[in-house]
C-alpha cells in the first residue's frame, strides 16, 4: 500500500515563501513520476508541478513557472515543492501524488495515489 504525507503548509503574506514536503512509503520504486496538485475553494483540482523518477525531468503549470521548484531527495522517497513569490491566488490545499503507470503527468487522472493535502493560505 502506497502512502503519501504532505507537510509544510501554512499562512504567509503575499510575496513570501513556503516549502512543501511529501514523504512517500510503500511500493513506489517503479513509479513513473510524482507530482503536486492544488485545489482552491470552489474549484477543481489543478496541476502544479511534477518530476520523473530520476529527477532529471520536471514539469510546471504556466501559473507557477519561475516561482515554484520541484525536486526529489537522493532516496527518491521525498518530493519537495519550493514556493517563492507567493500570491493570493496560490491559496489552496496542495496534494502530493504518485504515478505508478506511464500516464500523463499533468493530469490528476493519471495518478494512482494521493496524500491528505496541506493547506497553503496567502494573505494580501
How do the strands and helices of this protein lay out in sequence?
Blueprint: E1 3-7, E2 10-13, E3 18-25, E4 33-39, E5 46-52, E6 58-60, E7 68-72, E8 78-83, E9 92-99, E10 113-114, E11 118-123
Task: Provide tags for this entry.
single chain; 124 residues; mainly beta
Offer a quick outline of the entry.
It contains no helices and eleven strands. With 124 residues, it is mostly beta strands. β5 (46-52) and β6 form a beta hairpin.
- Can you tell me the overall shape? globular
Strand percentage lies at over 45%
Percentage of residues assigned to helices: under 10%
Query: What is the straight-line distance between the termini?
Result: 40 Å
Radius of gyration (Å): 13 Å
Element-level helix/strand string: EEEEEEEEEEE
Low-confidence stretches: none
Specify the number of helices: 0
Can you describe what's shown?
- With 124 residues, this protein is mainly β.
- It has no helices and eleven strands.
- It has strands at 3-7, 10-13, 18-25, 33-39, 46-52, 58-60, 68-72, 78-83, 92-99, 113-114, 118-123.
- The strands form two sheets. Strands 2, 4, 5, 6, 9, 10 and 11 form a seven-stranded mixed beta sheet that branches. A four-stranded antiparallel beta sheet has the order 1-3-8-7, with no helix packed on it.
